[in-house]
Design brief:
- Helix content is about 0%, strand content about 40%.
- The chain has one helix spanning about 110-115; strands spanning about 40-45, 55-60, 65-70, 75-80, 85-90, 105-110, 115-125, 130-135, 150-155, 165-170, 175, 195-200, 215-220, 225-230, 235-240, 245-250, 275-280, 285-290, 295-300, 305-310, 315, 320-325, 330-340, 340-345, 360-365.
- The strands form six sheets. Strands 18, 19, 20, 21 and 22 form a five-stranded antiparallel sheet that branches. It has a four-stranded antiparallel sheet with strand order 1-25-24-23, with no helix packed on it. Strands 2-3-4-5 form a four-stranded antiparallel sheet, with no helix packed on it.
- β15 (about 235-240) and β16 form a beta hairpin.
- The protein is globular.
- The two termini are about 20 Å apart.
Length: about 375
């Protein structure tokens, strides 16, 4: 089944899982299309026994830092020894049983080799915020995180739809995907940080070249963004949870409005920007994404599969391809180690999955 919808088809649910269409957008003649079919093979398990893993980052030495959503704990994973050792706890993290809030995305500074700064997006009792902490592995085990330096506070929070993915772009700026916290009107409210993709300096300030001077808002009209990735040409892509009809993979344009809650999925309604690909939530509900081997790789929670979306420039080169359907359960985060190696985390201990023995885990994949 192809999740692509014909540009002339209705945006209402059709009762079928998906429909095929000609990919949208244009591509530079210099950019060749990724092959229609690719491969993804599990080559090992990096670690097992993780509790509610959400944010995953790789350090320069190859080790991983993994955050636990519910507890606020951060662990260092040794991929050679397959062990996870707690390095500290982010203070003030708040998680409500059955909800999506807590310690969410992690990112390391572009200058991590010299400044050793770890960034975290997390929920408190009053808001979502982004803080940075010094990571010092020379300190005692469990006490290797410095006090949080909050660079951004006041992102609206809710039981669900808290966004949470953060990543440094090729421009050295920090990007954050936020959710509308179950209040759809906030996605179109330019005075709110909810339902947006934010772009900021490493200190949390609006860059001078943001679409609106003095504003952190880079794009708007989002329901819940949990995936951010850049392709080989430096273009930003995001994954987004829909409501009942369409989940989305979007190509992000500065100042773009992606339509929620006015439209969901491909609508051909100016000035809103249509997604490049859309899926019904039962086969997607996408969280993390990564770019490797000419494709976007997208982890699906409810859909319990890894989607490969081959690209040609700004469009999908062919119908998306699914891997591991139902094999590992809910999938949360994808990290590109290099152009043919991915790390993929499961999310079966998050209260909505059915844990397998050894869950949760991080798998190593070889892709092409």
């Amino acid at each position: 089944m192809s999740p692509l919808l014909s540009p002339k088809a209705s945006t209402k649910a059709s009762g079928t899982a998906s429909q095929q269409a000609a990919p949208s957008g244009t591509a530079s003649p210099a950019e060749s299309a990724a092959p229609a079919k690719g491969t993804a093979k599990v080559t090992g398990t990096t670690v097992t026994g993780l509790a509610q893993p959400w944010g995953v980052v790789q350090l320069p030495d190859g080790a991983l830092l993994v955050g636990s959503r519910d507890s606020g704990k951060i662990s260092r994973v040794d991929p050679q020894k397959h062990t996870a050792t707690q390095i500290g706890v982010v203070p003030g993290v708040s998680h409500t049983q059955g909800g999506e809030a807590g310690l969410l995305g992690l990112a390391i500074s572009p200058d991590f080799g010299s400044d050793h700064l770890l960034y975290a997006y997390f929920t408190t009792e009053s808001d979502n915020r982004i803080a940075r902490m010094l990571y010092d592995p020379a300190r005692a085990q469990g006490e290797q995180l410095g006090a949080p330096d909050t660079i951004l506070r006041g992102i609206p929070m809710g039981l669900d739809h808290d966004g949470g993915r953060i990543a440094f772009g090729p421009d050295g700026m920090l990007y954050a995907g936020t959710g509308e916290t179950g209040r759809p009107q906030l996605a179109q409210d330019m005075s709110s940080l909810a339902g947006k993709i934010l772009r900021m300096t490493p200190d949390g300030q609006p860059p001078k070249d943001n679409p609106t001077p003095g504003s952190l808002v880079y794009s708007s009209g989002h329901r819940n963004v949990e995936g951010l990735a850049w392709d080989a040409q430096g273009r930003l892509w995001s994954s987004e949870f829909g409501q009942d009809t369409w989940d989305e993979l979007n190509l992000i344009k500065p100042g773009g409005n992606y339509g929620w809650p006015v439209v969901e999925g491909i609508a051909h309604r100016a000035p809103y920007i249509d997604p490049v690909v859309q899926w019904h939530p039962d086969v997607a509900s996408p969280s993390g994404i990564a770019y490797a081997a000419g494709s976007i790789w997208m982890a699906a929670l409810r859909g319990q599969r890894l989607w490969r979306i081959p690209l040609q420039g700004t469009r999908a080169a062919a119908a998306p391809q699914a891997f591991f359907t139902g094999t590992y359960g809910r999938l949360r985060t994808v990290v590109a180690v290099d152009d043919h190696t991915l790390l993929l985390s499961t999310s079966n201990t998050d209260g909505r999955g059915k844990p397998h023995p050894g869950d949760d885990r991080i798998l190593q994949l070889t892709v092409s």
